[in-house]
Design a protein that fits this description.
The chain has helices spanning about 1-15, 65-75, 105-110, 125-140, 155-165, 190-200, 215-220, 285-310, 375-385, and strands at about 25-30, 35-40, 45-50, 55, 80-85, 95-100, 100-105, 115, 205-210, 225-230, 235-240, 245-255, 255-270, 270-280, 325-330, 335-340, 350-355, 360-370, 385. By secondary structure, the protein is of the alpha+beta class. Helix 1 (about 1-15) crosses helix 8.
Length: about 400
């Protein structure tokens, strides 16, 4: 029983503990495209990453080749992590790039090969903004790199001048720094579907009714409580859930916007019950592919959270899981599937539904992990339905 208490705490923590997995991806840098764009190999595909808060000289601008060479010297063929916060104007993933504990963007600015980007610096934390701004001021004062020139031309001014030359009718106001998008750069091969589903298990909560560092509510013991029907306003699903659960909002990058996903988590006895829901853009992907990919990413996130949490408490606890006995449960116009997760390190079961409504993809997922499967596991999954009405039930 004591070993399962640890397992239970790890599973509960991996969903809400922000210290385990921030909004991040990682991989080896396989190409340096410019002074502020790199390509990282992640999830068996190349991902273009724009350094958040950084604007280096354009490649056809003076010092552009120097900036790219400097960035290449820093990160090329090295493993980095990317704390991303959305998609940039050129369709790259926008984020802070970290080499070990070094902020590569701040280093580029400090070395005098890039500016603080006025278009995206506001998306950094207050602490990071201050570091970036102080780094630029220090590079200016020491006349490092491009600051050796008397009047170096900022990239946004260079792009604006180029635009005006090509289109004399354009006004200065029409190409302000906050609206310029760098041109002639291919779109990232990391799809919006990939980011949405990665975000489901990777994002840091932006607001929550629970302090994610305090998991006492989820690990206090095998108490039993009342259940109630959860039917969020504006959503097309409902489920019976433990009434003492918590709902957390998470930001998910999707295209050029940030959409809001929500996660419910509660417990009853030694079982952890989770619901996730999000609506975002769609690009013609097949529903069945979305279901399979979402489940695989969900389990990967659970596994990484489990192993990280176990390590933090001094226990080696590798996580393994296979999707078994997939069953079609489509209903109400939604494509749906139920998965048997009883082969997992922590056994469980899951249901997932998706549908494109008015050009937006709706995604609903329910999962339960337990020590021993009891009647509430089946009751929870059977009650999780879409496109139909339910009568309120309590226990």
């Amino acid at each position: 029983m004591k070993s399962f208490i640890l397992i239970f705490t790890i599973v509960a923590s991996c969903f809400l503990c922000a210290d385990i997995r921030a909004a991040s991806l990682s991989g080896k840098v396989i190409e340096v495209n410019s002074g502020d764009v790199i390509t990282v190999f992640n999830l068996n595909r190349p991902v273009r990453v724009k350094l958040l808060g950084v604007d280096a000289p354009e490649m056809d601008q003076a010092f552009g080749d120097v900036a790219r060479k400097h960035l290449s010297d820093l990160v090329n063929d090295k493993s980095v992590s990317v704390e991303y916060s959305g998609i940039s104007a050129d369709h790259s993933v926008a984020g802070r790039v970290l080499l070990n504990s070094t902020d590569v963007g701040a280093q580029m600015i400090r070395d005098g090969v890039a500016w603080v980007d006025p278009n995206s610096v506001s998306r950094l934390s207050a602490t990071d903004r201050e570091v970036y701004q102080q780094s630029e001021q220090a590079a200016r004062n020491e006349r490092r790199g491009l600051w050796q020139a008397d009047n170096p031309v900022a990239p946004w001014d260079f792009v604006r001048a180029k635009s005006l030359k090509q289109n004399p009718a354009a006004t200065l106001n029409s190409t302000s720094p906050t609206t310029i998008a760098k041109v002639d750069r291919p779109a990232s091969e990391l799809t919006n579907l990939t980011l949405m589903n990665t975000g489901i298990t990777a994002q840091r909560p932006i607001s929550s009714s629970v302090d994610s560092s305090d998991m006492a509510w989820a690990s206090a013991g095998p108490t039993r409580g009342n259940w109630h029907q959860l039917r969020p306003d504006g959503e097309s699903f409902s489920a019976l859930v433990p009434e003492d659960g918590k709902i957390t909002r998470v930001p998910l990058p999707a295209g050029d916007q940030i959409v809001e996903g929500k996660v419910y988590m509660g417990r009853d006895g030694w079982s952890v019950y989770t619901l996730m829901w999000v609506t975002g853009p769609t690009y013609g992907e097949k529903d069945r592919d979305v279901l399979a990919y979402t489940m695989s990413r969900f389990l990967q996130g659970v596994g990484e959270g489990y192993e990280s949490r176990a390590q933090s408490v001094g226990r080696a606890a590798p996580f393994s899981c296979e999707l078994q006995n997939q069953r079609d449960i489509s209903m109400g116009g939604y494509t749906g599937a139920e998965f048997d997760l009883r082969s997992c390190t922590v056994p469980g079961r899951a249901r997932i539904f998706t549908k494109v409504v008015n050009g937006q993809r709706q995604m609903y997922l329910a999962a339960v992990f337990y020590m021993e499967e009891d009647e509430n596991v089946s009751r929870f999954l059977k009650s999780f339905t879409v496109g139909t009405s339910q009568k309120t039930k309590t226990r």
